[in-house]
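Hi all, a correction to my earlier message: I attached the wrong file for Chemotaxis protein CheY. Here's the right sequence:
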Amino acid sequence: MAKTILILDDSAPIRQVVGIALRGAGYEVVEAKDGIDGIDKLNGQKLNLIITDVNMPRMDGITFVKEVKKMPRYKFTPIIILTTESQDNKKQEGRAAGAKAWVVKPFQPPQLLDAVAKLILP
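and the right structure:
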């Protein structure tokens, strides 16, 4: 059965590029345009991984990660932050919130797929 990944990014082209890379690697993809939309899309479904941007309207990625980690069903779901932010203090904030990996845009799809493969358990 295919593993399901939720992608959150306010940029439709980024969601598209990430989605194409993930689908090409055999993953199911659910897309959300910001943190609030992401929380709505969780709705109890089984997710193997979440990829989120940091800078989004309505709810940013770090706040989203904190909210997800409060939910018993998603407490252990690995989260990758995919963002233009590369400052160490932002990375520490992401790690403290519960993110497992940090990928800086622009990214190469193989780099992202490598991070995904390391975090999704077989």
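Sorry for the mix-up. The two ends are 10 Å apart (CA to CA).
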